Amino acid sequence: MREVKKDQHVIACIESPASAETVIAYARHCAHMLNDKGIALLNVSKEGGGEWLKQYGLPYMGLKGEWSTAIEGLPTALGGILVVTAVSHKAPRSSITHPGTLLRTFGHCKSAWLVVDGDGGLPSPTPAEGGFPATTAITLDHRRESKEKLIWGSYMARFLHSRLTIATPTYKDAGLRQRLDNNMRYLEKIYRPLGVEYSTVALESTTFGNPDIAALERVRPELLIAMTSDPRDRDVVDWIVRRPERRLLERRPYTPLLFLNQRDDLYILCD
Questions:
Q1: pLDDT higher than 50, residue 2
Q2: Cβ contacts of 130 within 8 Å, gap of 6 or more
Q3: Residue 198, Cβ density class (10 Å: 0-12 exposed, 13-18 middle, ≥19 buried)
Q4: How far is it, in rounded angstroms, from Cα 25 to Cα 81?
Q5: Terminus of the chain with fewer CB atoms < 10 Å: N or C?
């Protein structure tokens, strides 16, 4: 591994040269905008090595083993605050860029993980004014929400200068409306001291619908921040119906997704 000097890094997970340029472009942009964090490339294979990563001129790791094991250890091994990877609808199941394999591989990731289009459907971001993402969407509903989800929304607004939209379902039930109001008050408690500005939009979605998909259709953001479903809460129906995050990964045209796993030990930056 080449020398790495910074204590917090954006990690670009690169399985092959096919999507390397796209993943590196997003990782480089995010590292720069998040107060010039470090950047490192990661490749994991049964053989190890990864010397081909030298061509990109960045710190890199070529590990031998399983992707999921390496990814779970990134916060402690390298201070990985954000992981960038690609998804491809053309990839075989053996590839981590396959939607289903990607979710299994990153299922225990302790860092936020940004998924971009590995099929060449997205332009590379630049640190120019506006940059990426110009717009970010977060959904809030009646369910218990993650503090980390709201904090990452604030990072997009504060560091990447993104216009933040909070999308909320329209409820007829008074109890559900009360829970949503409580979540909005919690959001304001976090955002007011930080000076984070945001707009709100109402979603015409059902109680049991997927608000994230509704937000993509209504807001059309450049980035959506979403929580993955907790595997501990899955029942028989969930094993039959595709997970909400799987449906998000398979949508076209593709929108970059910043996923947060439902864990008690997520690792975030503290700027």
A1: no
A2: 161
A3: middle
A4: 17
A5: C
pTM, full prediction: 0.90
Radius of gyration of the chain (CA): 18
Alpha carbon distance 200, 177 (integer Å):
15
- Tell me how far apart the alpha carbons of residues 261 and 244 are, in angstroms, rounded to a whole number: 13
CB 13 within 8 A of CB 50: no
With cut-offs at 50, 70 and 90, classify the pLDDT of residue 1. very low
Which of 29, 52, 21 lies closest to 162, judged by CA?
A: 29
Match 């919690």 to its residue by tokens. Answer: 186
Q: How confident is the model at residue 232 (pLDDT cuts 50, 70, 90)?
A: low
Distance of CA 108 to the CA centre of its chain: 13
pLDDT digits (tens, 9 = 90+) for 73-116: 888 788 899 999 999 999 999 999 999 999 999 999 999 999 99
Cβ-contact 257, 226 below 8 angstroms: yes
